[in-house]
Write a structure and sequence with these properties.
The complex is a heterodimer of chains A (243) and B (384). Helices cover 38% and strands 24% of the residues of chain A. Chain A is an alpha/beta fold. Classes of the chains: A alpha/beta (243), B mainly alpha (384).
Chain lengths: 243, 384
């Protein structure tokens, strides 16, 4: 079970309304695409839902339990994991050590020794096992994004937020990553994916939520949502719509 | 993939400690100077202090100048409770540690709750605590009252031998305790949690590390070990004053020793304490008191710049050239002479090993420091 509901989430940064009353839900087994122009609040929403930021107001409920004010380390323990848009590896650790950290915590914490062994499985899943003992400085961007994935998956989540796992990758790497997301979903993990590439989102997602200036302007079937006038306006501006 | 053996280092440390327990008897039987015991004690003292500092700051990355406060609480606990109140000595050591741990936890409770607190502010706050404590102790006549406390009359346990033998053994116990705690922490979930906090605290928290609790535990351990070591040190100073205790010397020394030796491994502060104290002791003995701080300071800057990863990891990466350096140091000691003391020998050997390790020869892969170039490159690619 992974049933996430959020109501009227508000987050201000000074005078900027990054989230201006965002509500929605993510159900078991979905792949929800979270799209919207730059600055529309996608990353902020993930930051709030994962406990990275505290919401100014609003409510977050996971499987009927209110998790709004929980610290981030309790939220991942309940099965919500995330990746960072710009990879943020632990820079003084090897790839293997990076992945072993989440295994030592959470609902079934392992000893450091056991965590190292289990971490190797997740490096294999993401194809990074050859780099296990490499310092992360020797990994390229594509590999670092996979390392983010491996680390989030090692926390054994039920739902994972993928924040632009494909941005900055070349076309071959994008295709490979799409397959990876499908495999993660096939293993029984619910996914919320933030992505700029509309082609990718519409092919992957079972549902799409569109954010614009901190508000949800559309929510529904991928192909239908992307044709709605508000969505086209938000993405391309007024003239494109009338043309 | 290397298999970690977390029990190996503590077991070896304990074996060495048991052997060293009888070192005072050897000094006595061989008729060596008492100075050998006092020199070793001072190395133990700095080892305990530097290991304690490194446990929190080195592992978690939060820069603390609070070492003087923890140390001072330990010294003054013995001064006030034993001298003025007549408490028994050994339990008071523990009380000194516990009070310093309580101080650490109180600082943590305030500081770590303020979420946006930046690193520099944390450093300044810990420095301020030491000065505030010093001021309070100076005003309060129950603590010090500005008069200082004479400590030479403290009754000491006879079971541990003569005064130099006793101070050696107490110093050994505190140093071994601090080192073993650091070893255990380094290989535990607590240690990995602290390392991940040091690298990126936000990410550590979102990956499940209970960052607040771990920082509190580490700061509490640091306080306890530093307070315990300070309490023992009270027996080594004959007269304690505010100016000598709550000043910047202890924090600066432990920072230098730990950074020189390397903050990422428990061995770093141990090696740093040995090298720094031996060098400054030998310079003083050579009649260079006036310039010894300048020479030590210059050498430290050189070493830290040349070996960012710390002396210990550097030596481990290039054992051969370090050993050659140490051998040259031993030989040089004989040539240069006069070898009036085994400590001078040790000084030349360490100097040779350090200089050997510093030689910039092609090294194997090194772990990047914080703020690795890779992260910057990514920021340029993705953020742009």
């Amino acid at each position: 079970m992974a049933d996430l509901r959020f109501e009227n989430l508000v987050k201000h940064f000074g005078g900027v309304h990054a989230l201006d009353g965002v509500s929605g839900h993510v159900g078991e087994g979905e792949i929800v695409g979270l799209v919207g122009p730059n600055g529309s609040g996608k990353s902020t929403l993930i930051n709030v839902l994962s406990g990275h930021y505290e919401a100014d107001s609003g409510k977050i409920v996971l499987d009927g339990e209110d998790i709004t004010d929980r610290p981030a380390h309790r939220i991942i323990e309940m099965g919500l994991a995330r990746t960072y848009q710009i990879p943020r590896p632990f820079s003084t650790m090897t790839a293997l050590e990076n992945v072993s950290v989440p295994l030592m915590f959470g609902s079934e914490p392992m000893s450091p020794g056991a965590a190292r062994e289990a971490a190797l499985e997740w490096l294999e899943f993401t194809g990074l096992d050859a780099y296990a003992d490499e310092p992360v400085s020797s990994l390229n961007l594509h590999q670092l994004k996979y390392l983010e994935l491996a680390r989030a998956l090692a926390a054994r989540p039920r739902l994972v937020f993928l924040d632009e796992v494909l941005s900055g990758l070349n076309p071959a790497e994008v295709n490979e990553s799409i397959e990876m997301v499908r495999r993660i979903h096939a293993s029984g993990i619910t996914i919320v994916i933030v992505e700029h590439l509309v082609r990718v989102v519409t092919s992957l997602a079972t549902r799409i939520m569109v954010l614009d200036r901190g508000r949800v302007i559309a929510d529904g079937d991928p192909t239908e949502v992307m044709r709605q006038p508000e969505v086209v306006t938000a993405y391309l501006g007024k003239r494109a719509q009338s043309a | 993939m290397k298999k970690p053996r977390p029990w190996l280092a503590p077991a070896a440390t304990l074996v060495i400690a048991v052997a060293m327990w009888f070192y005072p008897d050897l000094v006595d039987a061989a008729g060596w100077p008492i100075f050998y015991l006092l020199f070793a004690y001072t190395v133990f003292f700095w080892t305990a202090q530097a290991s304690s500092w490194n446990l929190f700051t080195g592992f978690s990355g939060y820069f603390s100048f609070g070492q003087g406060a923890f140390y001072g609480v330990g010294v003054y606990t013995v001064g006030v409770m034993v001298v003025k109140r007549g408490w028994p000595l050994l339990p008071t050591f523990l009380v000194g540690g516990i009070l310093a741990a309580a101080l650490g936890l109180s600082i943590g409770l305030v500081v770590f709750r303020l979420r946006r607190l930046r690193g520099e502010i944390f450093a300044l706050m810990t420095l301020a605590v030491a000065f505030v404590l010093g001021a309070v102790a100076r005003i309060s006549s129950t603590i010090d009252g500005g008069q200082g406390i004479p400590l030479s009359s403290v009754p000491t346990p006879e079971a541990l031998g003569t005064h130099p033998q006793m101070i050696f053994r107490l110093g050994l116990i505190t140093a071994v305790l601090a080192v073993v705690v650091a070893q255990v922490v380094q290989h535990s979930r607590l240690g990995w949690g602290l390392f991940s906090i040091r690298d990126d605290e936000d990410v550590a928290e979102t990956l499940g590390v209970p960052t607040f609790r771990f920082k509190m535990i580490a700061l509490g351990l640091t306080g306890f070990l530093a307070g315990l070591s300070g309490a023992v040190h009270a027996l080594q100073v004959s007269y304690v004053t505010i100016e000598e205790v709550f000043n910047i010397r202890v924090p600066l020394m432990v920072i230098l020793m730990s950074i020189l030796g390397g903050t990422r491994h428990w061995m770093g502060p141990v090696l740093g304490a040995l090298v720094v104290h031996t060098m400054s002791d030998r310079l003083n003995r050579a009649g260079l008191e006036a310039v010894s701080d300048i020479i030590v300071g210059a050498l430290l800057i050189l070493m830290i710049v040349a070996m960012k990863e710390g002396l210990y990891l550097r030596m481990r990466q290039r054992p051969l050239i370090t050993a050659i350096g140490a051998a040259v140091g031993v030989a040089g000691g004989f040539v240069l002479g006069p070898l009036d003391s085994a400590v001078t020998h040790l000084g030349y050997t360490l100097l040779g090993a350090v200089l050997g390790a510093m030689i910039p020869v092609g090294s194997r892969r090194q772990r990047p420091e914080r703020g690795a170039p890779a992260a910057q490159a990514i920021e340029e690619v993705v953020g742009g």
